[in-house]
Write a structure and sequence with these properties.
- GO terms for molecular function: hydrolase activity, acting on carbon-nitrogen (but not peptide) bonds.
- InterPro entries: Amidohydro-rel, Metal-dep_hydrolase_composite, Metal_Hydrolase, Metallo-dep_Hydrolase.
- It holds the Pfam family Amidohydro_1.
- By secondary structure, this protein is α/β, with parallel strands linked by helices.
- The chain has a domain of 361 residues: Metal-dependent hydrolases (TIM Barrel, Alpha-Beta Barrel), CATH 3.20.20.140.
- It is 32% helix and 18% strand.
- The strands form 4 sheets. Strands 1, 2, 3, 4, 5, 14, 17 and 18 form an 8-stranded mixed β-sheet that branches. Strands 9-10-11-12-13 form a 5-stranded parallel β-sheet.
- A hairpin with a 1-residue loop joins β2 and β3.
């Protein structure tokens, strides 16, 4: 268990605590359906494939699947009543609304004991923001617990997205995996247990290669955070060549681009177990890599593209490094962040990602440059036909579940993705990366009815997807208003009122504040404040 815990602390997730377990998510009390016949009328459709928006359309959902999509007129014109679908058990008047595929969050952690974030809290925040599929990487709360929640979600016994479970290398072992044979045996056991994939951090090269290749043989997808404790021996080109399917965060990419060194230029007094060091100097990695447009830059991009590799950048989880104040004072914290989670964020030797001991303007400037180069690399990969997905990694560094995912979409836009490309990354590209594009990821006949309904156009402003909505000045009333917010999240034909889910979360936070002696409407503050 010590070995597994050490590996998990290398990445942005909560180490398992064997003496404690999170409570199980409660039975579902939200959501109506599925219906024999659910009709969504008059919506503008953004189908997730990259095709432009079109509408008005009527959409028929039968049970858990999309049965028909029918054009019913031209925008602003009269409806073609002859084309309209017959009423059903439930009809949603979506005139003036937009329908998108349910979102796929490719990098999630289902709460944790150290943060005291119960599963219900996390799951409802995801669903309230339109996330209908979440890839849980590492199974940090235990494999059995996580698989149990996947099963209950699939049966719609709990309010939750579909869950894909990728246990970390070494899960459920007391001793480290030190040989290729042991790695292969462990991967086979994970396949027998029902895992959807495997998550990697760091291991001896022969062990890592054997595990990746065995996962491929077992038809398991793979994801890797290339921990800096291993990248002197292998980078993303090595692991992708071995068969790795998805690269998380930014580690491993700049190392593959080094031309004037083979190891990152660390200060002589650097200590990787000091997270202040780790994250401060991680911001220097891209500046040491080959320049954009260079032969090496192009070689790495083209090689990864040829391997059909997927990038899951998780820009948002590192955003506080380039703007600490923005991360700390995001407007949703006061209403939706549990006091225990806020306390977890404060500088600490124990809590992972709580390393802003004395973060400086110089640190932020370095990370600004880091983001510029990193975003250019990811955007160019997309432009060359490479697959890029959207993952949040929330629960650390001031990022809140659900809200952090929408921020990731904004950062993809900042990187150079068009709004339609952002939505495709958030939906169909994630489904493809998990090998599930025949079931989910786009609004097409025959696929699962995983849908997001909203009364504002997210292609114009992605901020309307936030649970706190987008600010808009009404020039007629001269009042500042909030517009948007997901109206309905539909998973497998079950219709969830997103605002009710947010209300549930807000009540959890109010109760936690009351128990902690904090006024319900008080701003969350760090202890020194």
């Amino acid at each position: 268990m010590r070995y597994f815990t050490f590996l998990l602390t290398l990445a942005l997730l909560t180490p398992p605590v064997s003496a404690q377990k999170l409570p199980e998510a409660p039975d579902r009390t939200r959501g109506d359906g599925p219906y024999d016949r659910l009709v969504i009328r008059g919506a503008t459709l953004i189908d997730g494939t990259g095709a432009p928006a079109r509408g008005p359309v009527d959409i028929l959902v039968q049970g858990d699947s999309i049965a028909r999509i029918t054009a019913v007129g031209a925008p602003g014109g009269p409806m073609n009543e002859d084309a309209r679908l017959e009423d059903g058990d439930r009809v949603i008047d979506a005139s003036g609304m937009y329908v998108l595929p349910g979102f796929v969050d490719m990098h999630t952690h289902l709460g944790g004991v150290p943060q005291q974030t119960p599963a219900e809290y996390v799951l409802k925040l995801w669903m309230a923001h339109g996330v209908t599929t979440a890839r849980e990487v590492a199974a940090g709360n235990g494999l059995d617990w996580t698989l149990h929640h996947r099963k209950r979600s699939a049966a719609n016994e709990i309010t939750a997205p579909r869950l894909a479970v990728y246990p970390a290398l070494g899960t459920d072992r007391e001793a480290p995996i030190t040989t290729p044979d042991a790695a292969r045996a462990w991967v086979r056991r994970m396949a027998e247990e029902g895992a959807d994939g495997i998550k990697f951090f760091e291991a001896p090269p022969d062990v890592l290669k054997a595990a990746i290749q065995e996962a491929e043989a077992q038809d398991l997808r793979t994801a890797m955070h290339h921990a800096q404790s291993g990248t002197a021996r292998y980078d993303v080109l090595d692991t992708a060549t071995w068969g790795l399917t998805t690269g998380e965060h930014f580690y491993g990419y700049p190392e593959a681009l080094f031309t004037e060194r083979s190891i990152q230029d660390f200060p002589d007094d650097y200590n990787y177990q000091d997270e202040g060091d780790r994250f401060r100097y991680a911001g220097h990695m891209w500046q040491q890599a080959a320049e954009p447009g260079s032969a090496r830059w192009n070689q790495v991009l083209d090689s990864l593209r040829a391997l059909d590799f997927t990038m899951d950048p998780t820009f948002g989880i590192y955003e506080a490094n380039r703007d600490l104040m923005r991360g700390r004072r995001a407007e949703w914290h006061d209403r939706y962040t549990l006091p225990s989670l806020w306390n977890y964020y404060k500088p600490s030797f124990e809590n992972h990602g709580s390393y802003h001991y004395y973060w400086s303007s110089n640190d932020e400037a370095v990370w600004d440059t880091h983001f510029d180069l990193w975003m250019q690399f990811v955007n160019e990969y997309k432009n060359r036909g490479g697959r890029v997905t959207a993952g949040s990694d929330s629960g650390f560094i001031f990022k809140l579940y659900g809200f952090g995912y929408i921020r990731e979409l904004e950062l993809l836009r900042e990187a150079g993705f068009s709004p339609l490309e952002v939505i495709r990354s958030a939906t169909l590209e994630g489904a493809k990366a998990m090998g599930r594009a025949d079931e989910i990821g786009s609004v097409e006949v025959g696929k699962q009815a995983d849908l997001v309904l909203i009364d504002q156009n997210p292609l114009v402003n992605l901020k309307v997807l936030y649970g706190t909505k987008a600010l808009k000045f009404n020039k007629s009333t001269r009042q500042l208003e909030r517009v948007g917010g997901v109206d309905y999240t539909i998973k497998g034909g079950i219709v969830f009122d997103a605002q009710r889910l947010l209300n549930d979360v807000e009540q959890m936070v109010r109760t936690a504040k009351r128990e902690a002696g904090i006024a319900p409407n008080a701003d969350l503050k760090l202890p020194a404040e």
